[in-house]
Amino acid sequence: MDIDSLLKSFQHFGVHLGLSRIVKLLATLGNPHQQVPVIHVAGTNGKGSVCAYLSSVLTEAGYRTGRYTSPHLVDWTERICLNEQPIFPEILCPLILQVQAAIDPNEESPTQFEVITAAAWLYFAQQQVDVAVIEVGLGGRLDATNVCPQPLLTIITSISREHWQQLGPTVADIAGEKAGILKPGCPAVIGPLPPDADKVVRSRILELECPIFTPQPALQIATGWAEYQSIKNSQPLKYPLPLQGQIQLTNSVLALAGLEILQEQGWQISEEAIINGMAKTKWPGRMQWTTWRNHKLLIDGAHNPASAEVLRDYVDSLDSQNLAWIMGMLSTKEHKDIFQALLRPGDKLYLVPVPDNNSANLGELAKLANEICPELSFCSTYPDLSSALDTAFSPTDDLVVLCGSLYLIGHFLGMGNK
User: Fold this and answer.
1) Strands laid side by side in the 85-86 sheet
2) DSSP H/E element including 68
3) Averaged pLDDT of the chain
4) Domain boundary among 217, 249, 280
5) pLDDT for position 397
6) Domain check: are 195 and 108 in the same one?
7) Do 201 and 94 belong to one domain?
8) How far apart are CA 174 and CA 44, in angstroms?
9) What pLDDT score was predicted for residue 362?
10) Domain match, 339 and 407 both
């Protein structure tokens, strides 16, 4: 039995926020989440790379480190890692069966995300991890990961208007949901937030008496190197920064501040472990350079306006004359705002469907793109990703960027014929 077919039966329950189902399920499984020290990370963008930095450094420091993130790019096993290694399918399948067996048939069924989350807690408890870095799936307050009464620390990376259908229409509403991961007296590391969101998060922090840390973005001191002004030491830390884009000067310091808090709590994390761990950090599918049939290609899962702005800034810093976007988007995304962030006069746009997902209508996307940026030098739709890639690379002087959905990036990485 493969993982896909095991989890498929839970797919139709969709996104259904709430903690009652996961709490019951974990109780039946012996409350594995209570046996695992946790770092909990929420945010609209940046949470995945912050989790990647933390787990890389903690692994380097010699701790048995679990990491749980979503969504996956190619394979379910990517979501659950131990010491940076994805779980083996032959371990994950029995875990999912164990979770399935714990489901009460007379109760409301858990969602697919709740089932895989329960499997992650079970695995980390069985493996007796020293620490688990846990990324929130959606929102925070009612997310299936939000079941730990006392994490070691919580991090909120950024807040912008995404998933408002589930989390509420305004940035303040969304901030209230993300702030739901904060716990009484538990240290909180907070990234730069819009004023409305900041106000909500800070009032919750005051209420819960959380020590708060808001580190300043790092300074770039050389290609691939940055400098962090420590929250504890007067001496700044120079460290390697392998992930691309200005935003990593912010994301990386959120992880470094979190590591300093752990040091204060007595965790043994040397400067050498920090430097080596940061250097080894990988976070695929986000501003990643790869190739397609020997052509250089930039891929990025930018799927909301804030991440699209970050991607455009990075592309502008490359000084490329001709830019070709290959994009596919889900129907639920803010297409107009994403196009406004990305498209400039002279750019080319190749629109493709996102396979196996609720893909946006390509004709409507093309019409919208032309309205937003009438000076596009080219705009067309393609039935699949391969044909768009082949066409985009026929004039070889373009910088080609594939983006718009993490599912599309996952599909590309799964094609395996680069």
Assistant:
1) 85-86, 80-82, 65-68, 131-135, 38-42, 153-156, 188-190, 212-213
2) strand 65-68
3) 92
4) 280
5) 77
6) yes
7) yes
8) 9
9) 95
10) yes
